Structure formats: structure tokens, C-alpha cells
């Protein structure tokens, strides 16, 4: 599937988390459309979500080019469609069961791993990252955000303003899409290669640590591409700075720190990896 791409309208109107405009008669803030569509599965575009997941690994830049279509038609950068979140949560459910059956002691710990993977690793961390990005990226790289000192507080969902503004919903879109390569490399590939990369050999250490470098590198690049697609943000290349830190830490880890041996048990909420798996 190749989505239609068109240029955004200049001087677009108010944007918000779900694309719903505020009432003109002072009726308050309407419920964001994202929440209204949480359980309307027939209206969700799972085909688009699958295309995005494939493109995030092969050509991530294409994913964020498609946002211009939503600006043109919906007057919002954010896509109020939870299909990507549901689909990735389902994939995390499957991988958590695989990790649990392989390393957990009993059904209760497997359920705990499942809850941790979906609600803590994915949703909570994505919310925290998107919240930090909403305040810092909008404040430092763009026109700022409403609600800070010196501005009239409008909240996170309805943001009327004079020009383009960073939406919290778009920050969440970027965060969950940046998490997909993390799932691919650290939840799937690492699980499949664990019998090899968890051994006490330098080659195992090299390939295991490289998995973490690649996954974090993808996360940083996708985050950069997401915010770089917004025409009102400036100097977004600063978001690539963490890659230099990751490379330095990766190089230092090659002198004896096997990341899969130390971080995979944390991924499993403290479960012990069997030696020689």
C-alpha cells in the first residue's frame, strides 16, 4: 500500500490530540477523537498500520511523509487511529508469551511479563517520552506550547493558536512508531538469538551488544524523522545527538560487558537466564 501524499495547507486552523475543534459557544473541551475511536475496530486502518511497520524498518522516512495527507484532510498532524497501538500491543502479547514460556517460572510470572511488556515497556514509556518531547521539543525547537507560564492555559488536547503548534497526540504517534524497531530487535531477534548471544564468548558479546546499538539507533532516527517532518520545527538534527552517545557506550561495552546477559533479565522483570541457553 502506498498512501497518497499531498502538501499541508498553510496557516492551518487549530490542532489537537484527536482533531476535534473546540466549541465556538464556550461548551468546553470535547472528548478527543482518538478516545472516541478506541473500540471502533471496523473504522481502524490496520492495513495502514502494517504498511507503516514494514516501512519503519526498510524506509522510515516514508511513514512521516504520509502525515501531510492528514493535515490536508483532518487539519491535524496526529492520526486519531489506534490501530498501530493495538497491533503492536498484540505482537508484544505474543512475544511476552514466548519469553514467559522460555524463562518464567509458572503462569503467574508469564502474566506479569505480559503486563510489563505491554503496559510498562510500551505504553507507559511511550507516554513518558512523548510527554517530555511535547514540552521540550515544542519549547526548544518550535513556536512553544500553550499552558506554560506567560501563556493562557489550554490543556494538552485543544490547542488554539496563531500558527502551527506541536500536538501531544503527534508526539505519542512518533513514540509508539519509534518503539517498533525496539520490539523487532530486542523482543524478537534477541529472543531467537539468546542461545548464542548470551554465551561467554567475545563474538556473542559483539553481536548481542550490536543488537542494542541498532535498536536504539533506529529509535533515535525515527524520532528525528518524526519531528523533522513538521515544517515549523527547527534544528531537529539535534535529536540525533544521542546516537553518538550510543556508539561510545557500545564501543566501551565490547571490553567485557555482555548486554544480553545483563539487560535481558531486566526485560523479564528479574527472571534468571539459564546458562548455556
UniProtKB/TrEMBL annotation:
UniProt entry tagged with the keyword Transmembrane helix: yes
UniProt KW keywords: Membrane, Transmembrane, Transmembrane helix
Claim: Transcription is one of the keywords in the record: no
Residue intervals passing through the bilayer: 84-103, 115-137, 178-198, 205-227, 239-259
InterPro entries, A to Z: UNC-50 (IPR007881)
Region feature (Disordered): 1-25
Cellular component annotations (GO), alphabetically ordered: Golgi membrane
Membrane-topology descriptor: Multi-pass membrane protein
Short name of one Pfam family: UNC-50
Subcellular location: Membrane
Coiled coil spans: none
Domain of life, per lineage: Eukaryota
PANTHER family: PROTEIN UNC-50 HOMOLOG
Assigned protein family: Belongs to the unc-50 family.
Protein name per the record: Integral membrane protein
Species the sequence originates in: Patellaria atrata CBS 101060
Amino acid at each position: 500500500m502506498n498512501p497518497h501524499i499531498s502538501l499541508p495547507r498553510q496557516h492551518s486552523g487549530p490542532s489537537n490530540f484527536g482533531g476535534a475543534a473546540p466549541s465556538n459557544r464556550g461548551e468546553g473541551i470535547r472528548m478527543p477523537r482518538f478516545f472516541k475511536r478506541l473500540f471502533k475496530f471496523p473504522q481502524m486502518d490496520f492495513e495502514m498500520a502494517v504498511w507503516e511497520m514494514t516501512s519503519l524498518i526498510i524506509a522510515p522516512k516514508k511513514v512521516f511523509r504520509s502525515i501531510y495527507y492528514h493535515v490536508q484532510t483532518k487539519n491535524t498532524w496526529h492520526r486519531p487511529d489506534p490501530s498501530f497501538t493495538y497491533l503492536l500491543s498484540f505482537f508484544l502479547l505474543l512475544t511476552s508469551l514466548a519469553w514467559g514460556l522460555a524463562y518464567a517460572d509458572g503462569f503467574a510470572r508469564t502474566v506479569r511479563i505480559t503486563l510489563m511488556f505491554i503496559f510498562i515497556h510500551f505504553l507507559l514509556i511511550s507516554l513518558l517520552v512523548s510527554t517530555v518531547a511535547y514540552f521540550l521539543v515544542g519549547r526548544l525547537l518550535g513556536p512553544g506550547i500553550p499552558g506554560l507560564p506567560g501563556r493562557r492555559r489550554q490543556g494538552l488536547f485543544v490547542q488554539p493558536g496563531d500558527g502551527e503548534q506541536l500536538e501531544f497526540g503527534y508526539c505519542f504517534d512518533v513514540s509508539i512508531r519509534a518503539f517498533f524497531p525496539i520490539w523487532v530487535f530486542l523482543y524478537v531477534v534477541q529472543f531467537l538469538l539468546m542461545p548464542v548471544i548470551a554465551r561467554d564468548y567475545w563474538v556473542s558479546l559483539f553481536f548481542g551488544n550490536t543488537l542494542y546499538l541498532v535498536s536504539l539507533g533506529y529509535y533515535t532516527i525515527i524520532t528525528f524523522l518524526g519531528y523533522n517532518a513538521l515544517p515549523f520545527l527547527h534544528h531537529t538534527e539535534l535529536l540525533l545527538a544521542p546516537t553518538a552517545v550510543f556508539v561510545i557506550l557500545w564501543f566501551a561495552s565490547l571490553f567485557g560487558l555482555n548486554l544480553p546477559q545483563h539487560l535481558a533479565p531486566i526485560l523479564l522483570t528479574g527472571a534468571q537466564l539459564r546458562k548455556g541457553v
